[in-house]
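Hey, resending since the last one bounced:
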Amino acid sequence: MMRSGLLLLAGTLGLWAAPSLPSIAPRRPDVPTARRGAFLNPLDAFVDVYFQKQGIAWPAAVSDALFARRVYLDLWGLVPTPDQLREFLTDARPDKRARLVDALLANRRNYSEHWVSFWNDLLRNDEGVIYHGERQSITAWLLPALAENMPYDRFVATLLHPVSKEDPAGFLIGVNWRGDVSASQIPPLQAAQNSAQVFLGVNLKCNSCHDSFISRWKLKDAYGLASFFSEKPLEIYRCDKKTGEISQSKFLYPELGDAPAEAPLDERRAAAARLFTGKENGRFARTFVNRIWDRLFGRGLVGNVDDMDQAPWDADLLDWLAADFVDHQYDVQFLLRRILTSRTYQLPAVVEGERAEGKFVFRGPFLRRLTAEEFVDGISAITGEWRILKTNKAGAGAYARDWRLKSSPLTRALGRPIRDQVFTERNTQSTTLQALEVVNGESMANLLHRGSRRMLGQLRPAPENLYDSGVLTAGAAEIDIDIRGVKQLWLLLDDADSYDPSRTVAGWVDAELTGPEGAVRLADLMPSRGAPKTGVALHFKNQEPAAAVTAPLNSTLVYEIGGRGFNRFRAKIGVDQGSLKSDISPRVRFFVFAEEPDPQQLVRVEGDPPVVTRRAAATIKGLTEDLYRHALSRDPLPAEQQVARKMLAGPGGKASADGLEDLLWAVFLSPEFQFIQ
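The structure tokens again:
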């Protein structure tokens, strides 16, 4: 507190002085020759020199099992299956670790579906959420770009200068906040802040409002970069007050060049892309290499990934890795392979606080917590219980990894951000909210309850719906359903992510059941479950108000109709005209079932899950071994096997679903599962 206060005072008085800053130009140190022959990977030669200076002896590399679990999680975000682990452990070839890295990188689907979360955080992109206003998703471009291993310079240039309709325009559009915002948050300034932070390790947020108190960046620097992305000239605001000055395009590092004076927007964006990604901009490659190192080791070569003016713990290693990355045409997978096949990456994990006081000394990768997506996907892969991705249209869904769906209370507690701004690092510290969600939260409890029964083949098959409206946002649709032989009629109003479900009014209009004896209005029937509102008039555009049966969203109405001889159910369904407001933004899905539905699977599912989980072992011993091998990449200890046997013991010597649920809790809540060693 005292230090930050002094910095603030110094900045206010204009006393802040820049530290010795790294050159913007690239630098290519020579690979150390001492003991060079002892290392196949040049990266290790730099670390060897560093270790000698620090008086650190090289520890033995981690075991094959720990290496496999670490690299599977870092490249796929998934734990290896027992079969995958066994295949690797029994491989006798001396280069099997490098071969495993190559095999994992070659599976572009698993690779891209893991690394997309890293980029979603950086690029403010999200899935499973509704983008209001002008904000746009870039997933349709981002996922193929990762799968195709698009060179990093072209990747960034496309983000900064989108040209075709397939290009990711959403990155520069930014977040259009509801209501009034400060001048520092207009879209061009967001574009400047986000691009500088993510691609150059420069934080412009403070100096987008006024000259920074704690860095060298000035208000005009932020506006100068924002002018590359603005359709019209930008008037400079200082602390939300007009200055009367008009900003001109000015790159953060003028020695690299600038945009032509009075150039149109397209030319300014093209200039920005060249200035950011040009080979003479050494900071561009250094920033990315540092982010990847931070991701894989738990701390960057430069500790603060958003302040690349800070000194790295090994400047030669950082600069050599950046130059090596450029030499290989900005090949991201080459960079990953370079690091993952190093002896340095295979060092034992260090149990140490990431923000320890005093000078940092590198000894190996930090013990890292699984991300929210890795944690949930790991449980799903082991149990076979995956969330379902539904399209907006009526029809089948698909099993999906967690990144494709809206975050749950569990994943939000575990650190998945809402992505209304750039997130370059997630909070990995344990919190009370995390403990509550993991131990007593509905998301986790439901996942393990269903997962244990799915593993044992005891989960009731989900019934198919008789009708699925798809997502309705306005107006009405006609339904006419065959209900011959139906004994119960289940009517569901499912919220499909309305902005304000509590104010959304939707229902069944002029609904009736018909049979040989004529028609009966739905409003005249008393449901055995649910509390409908009757006598309500719904208003649809260009139609007269009509009597409806309504209920709150996410409610169910059940009607006992067995023996009544009904053969058709007819109605209009839709959203009331009064709900069509931007601060309500209704999204409703109507379902009809003939029996109690599975709330986790309202649509049929097509295709295989992301990981095909093999059938659970027939014996308690085999089930326990498979669980430990899959979750922890090791066999259970004798004491663990004994405890598991007591927990799983059920009637007739078969595994108990309740006991398995308890065992899953014990394994998944263990630090050994939740951390990458």
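Residues 1-18 have pLDDT under 50 and may be disordered.

Sorry for the duplicate.
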